[in-house]
Amino acid sequence: MLKIGGLLASLGMLLVITAGNFWQKESQASDYQLITPAHFGNQYQIPADNPMSEAGVELGRHLFYDVRLSRNDSISCATCHQPQLGFTDGKARAVGIAGRIHSRSSMALVNLLWTKQFFWDGRVSSLEAQVLLPIQDPKEMDMPINQLVGKLQKLPEYPPMFKKAFGIGKISPQNIAKAIAQFERTLISGNARYDQIVSGKIAPSEREQRAIQLFMTHPIPEAGIRGGNCGDCHGGYLTQLNTFHNNGLEQEPLDWGLGAITGKTFDRGKMKAPSLRNIALTAPYMHDGRFKTLREVLDHYNDHVQSSKYLDPLIVEATNEVDGQSLLLTEAEKADIIYFLNMLTDSSFINNPKFANPFKAEKE
Questions:
Q1: Architecture of domain 23-189+348-363
Q2: I want to staple 53 with a disulfide (CB 3.0 to 4.6 A). Which of 10, 30, 209, 258 is the partner?
Q3: Largest alpha-carbon pair distance within the chain?
Q4: Whether this model's pTM surpasses 0.85
Q5: What is the DSSP-derived secondary structure letter of residue 283?
Q6: CA 253, CA 93: separation in Å to the nearest integer?
Q7: DSSP SS3 for 17
Q8: Domain 6-17+191-346 belongs to what architecture?
């Protein structure tokens, strides 16, 4: 059996090396000073035609929480992306206006600055393109974009806010998208227990170090290396690799995911491997919310992966026993992986007042 995870197997031993300053400032052409965790790196690019500004981010926050962006003034972007739930909604599948149920769950909005493709199927490659689709989707906010432009133009508060953010009070679909994208780029979670360990601020306990290494390690039973195989798809400090995988939910995928976008047979059933930041808060899990708990997720990868011609090779050849046919984690190892996942909860992110509903604050 070919083993491809040697580097991942050793990653856990490197996690306590100090990554430099915990947060680093990125200079912007505008008045907004973006501050990011140093250990996340700077492999991101803010579009040249949408530099971040204080006014742009604040406008985006208002739009994100405004139910008037939906056809019947009943839901906002925040309805499906609530801070206390890690910017998800706690539902198996997203629910739009008039109780319309989407075919997929709401993805967590976190560390989008480093994200390269959006939605479970990766259909768009920019936040600016992403934000307008749920607004117009009949199963979500069901608001035609031209109608939204006219609606916002008539509200007394918005033309001055657009003028301040973009130098023009005439509202356009492009500037609606730019403002919401600016706000969403600020949703950075990098102060969990895990971050404090990898940045060198605190020392890990024995169990924490064991859990980190287990999570990040690809098993190589011939070499006596046990691993959870999680880091193959959710690796690095961001716990996301911007990759897509068929993870064996069905032999014949019910939802083609990336395959429906590319038209390629080998992409059938591939879904984006999301960031696991604040994962303990974002149940239920998978693109269709079929698993209620993290334990159910682990049981799937350990015992219930459906073999098929579409199954990801990283899963096909992952086992902790020579010639094993599944991952074969012990109960103790499962408990350690869940322990690590809880180390990704960032209370400062969840409770950040800069990410909170501005309308609620204005009423108080």
A1: Orthogonal Bundle (1.10)
A2: 30
A3: 68
A4: yes
A5: -
A6: 17
A7: coil
A8: Orthogonal Bundle (1.10)
